[in-house]
Amino acid sequence: MTATQVKHEVKDLSYATLGKQRIEWASREMPVLRQIRDQFAKDKPLEGLRMVACCHVTTETANLAIALKAGGADAVLIASNPLSTQDDTAASLVADYGIPVFAIKGEDNETYNRHINIALDHHPNIIIDDGSDVTAALIQNRKDQIKEIIGTTEETTTGINRLRAMYNDGVLTFPAMNVNDADTKHFFDNRYGTGQSTIDGIIRATNVLLAGKVVVVGGYGWCSKGVAMRAAGMGANVVVTEVDHIRALEAAMDGFRVMPMNEAAKIGDVIVTLTGNKHVVASHHFDNMKDGAIVCNAGHFDIELDLKSLREKAKEVKEVRPFTEQYILPNGKSVIVLGEGRLINLASAEGHPSAVMDMSFANQAKGSEYLALNKGKLEAGIHSIPREVDREIARLKLNAMGVKIDDLSDDQLKYMNSWTEGTD
User: Fold this and answer.
1) Lowest CB count within 10 Å: 310, 316, 343, 399, which one?
2) Domain residue limits, the chain
3) Closest CA to 371 of 27, 46, 129, 59
4) Would the annotation count 8 as a binding residue?
5) 88: how many CB neighbours lie within 10 A of its CB?
6) Residue 316 counted as an annotated binding residue
7) Where does the S-adenosyl-L-homocysteine hydrolase NAD binding domain lie (predicted)?
8) CA separation for the pair 333, 191 (Å, rounded)
């Protein structure tokens, strides 16, 4: 089948050559997913299943899509964010791997929603979701297709929160695999992946020196912890804002200043939100910011920043660098917004490093296999990735890194499982 015969809507198929080179480069750093792909090619656990993957269309996601196809899946890939698509990667998946892709960097909301409907037209049995947009659209608009669903897998904290809300409302009537909370996902992807890629995106967009700057981090979940840690490592003076007492206490004991956003907005040179909630930076916060304050988001949706209010009050808006807009306020001060408020680590950079996405997408692949092998056996609701799968992914990653660990002796195992042995 030629590229033009594969259903697609991508920027330009002529980008495919570069895209293939980059997909292959990413694969070098994804040894766990490579092993799963080889196993899938042999066992075909997804044979005959229609799948939709709604993900950031990056070189790492490309390697996941290739693994799914190797496992026998009839898979369609769409973007989970309008600014996260790498157009050369999308082109290569169509031209070189025969995988239908509907994703264009910078697509408007109308196109984004149309692509979701195209994905649902594929009548998926398994959905790999990032933010639960496809799952939500299915439940809201395609109730007749719910009976075709074996299950879904979810990549993000935001998506898991939405799935819990669906379950509490009684509308999630099929199983959902909680990929986000697997230890080999959130400990590494959320913390180290988001930490590095968010700082990368801010620097690529602005070329700002972080050393000596006040960097305000909205939230202190795993993603925020990663950003705070990396910003501090580059010499920034980090301030954390929180609504959760335990997380705020943790941030304070990690050595960061903690204060409400009302106060932090007044002193921040760079403000980045990572909460999954709306209007973390609200209209009144913009009014109190320093002249030239840089604001961006690395949470899931752009509504973490109240950009509608900012646009309404601004006297002028102009692009001063790629993915960098300057808003001139009535008081004469300017606010710099990066990446249209969307995920800055994907808008102006390349997202998480391949080495960390190796584990995240290994969980997605194995989660999909688990759903397929347990079709009709799992209850509706949210299910954890099996502990043995989580540990196996960690073992494979350590082996690939050349890291060895100790094994418990028989005597130690006996001691750990006994309540009669204690201090001699």
Assistant:
1) 316
2) 13-185+352-401, 192-348
3) 46
4) no
5) 23
6) no
7) 190-351
8) 34
State which CATH number among 3.30.1330.10, 3.10.520.10, 3.40.50.1480, 3.40.50.10490 fits the domain covering 13-185+352-401.
Answer: 3.40.50.1480
Determine whether the annotation assigns residue 4 to a binding site: no
pLDDT one-digit tens code per residue, 296-323? 999 978 999 999 999 999 999 999 999 9
Task: Tell whether the model's pLDDT for residue 40 goes beyond 70.
Answer: yes
- Residue 193: phi and psi, rounded to 5, are -65, -55
Cβ neighbours of residue 379 closer than 8 Å, sequence gap 6 or more: 175
Helix (H) or strand (E) holding 337: strand 334-338
Architecture category of domain 192-348 in CATH: 3-Layer(aba) Sandwich (3.40)
Is 168 labelled a binding residue? Answer: no
Contact (CB, 8 A) for 260 and 241: yes
Q: 13-185+352-401 with 192-348: one CATH topology?
A: yes
pLDDT tens for residues 162-185?
A: 999 999 999 999 999 999 999 999
Q: Is 85 annotated as a binding residue?
A: no
Annotated binding residue 277: yes
What secondary structure letter does DSSP report for 1?
Answer: -
Q: Is 255 a known ligand-binding residue?
A: no
